[in-house]
């Protein structure tokens, strides 16, 4: 499974594309998730640590250099705010771990004894089998993918990767060049896997009544 975030689909808006063995899922990129990742994620932790170290260093240098008192007070306040933010990040991580542990414990306590009951066991197993990516709203099977075309990179918007499904629908995905390359590789991998190239030589004719092979990259998309 491979997930590519920060993609803008036309139509569709800002999305996250998740590739699986037999297809891909297109999820809406929620603003709340982006905000939480920006302010509570790993990047926020590293930035906070750097600010803490920088404030300590600047305060020490300003003290030795005889800088104005306001500069030293400013460095001190930056250190205090950064330390409080670091404590908040640590508290959030700890709380998430505690909540996850409690949920896991409750699931184990409730589920394991219930598995001894045949009816409940069949119900749990049925839900587990149906709980894969195929059950998600944005699931697109690989067999529904008709072709993929890389577009030109635009410095202001990014690179474009266009896909067309067998029903004629066309979606253009815009992302940074590196992410667009990952998108194209993911789509092409699905196409190669589920639409293998024919083994017959080009000069060989198709059997009578057989449908001609359609390439997995069948020319430019239809409007």
What is the secondary structure topology, with strand pairs?
Layout: E1 2-10, E2 13-20, E3 23-28, H1 31-40, H2 42-65, H3 69-114, H4 118-129, E4 139-141, E5 145-150, E6 159-165, E7 170-175, H5 177-194
Antiparallel strand pairs: 1-2, 1-7, 2-3, 3-4, 5-6, 6-7
Helix pairs in contact: 1-2, 2-3
Please describe what this structure looks like.
By secondary structure, the chain is of the alpha+beta class. The protein has 2 domains: 2-33 and 138-194, Roll (PH-domain like); 41-129. The protein has 5 helices and 7 strands; from the N terminus they run E-E-E-H-H-H-H-E-E-E-E-H. The chain has helices spanning 31-40, 42-65, 69-114, 118-129, 177-194, and strands spanning 2-10, 13-20, 23-28, 139-141, 145-150, 159-165, 170-175. Strands 4-3-2-1-7-6-5 form a 7-stranded antiparallel sheet, with helices on one face. A hairpin with an 8-residue loop joins strand 5 (145-150) and strand 6 (159-165). Helix 1 runs parallel beside helix 2 (42-65) and helix 2 runs antiparallel to helix 3. The longest helix has 46 residues, at 69-114. Mean pLDDT is 75; it is low at 197-217.
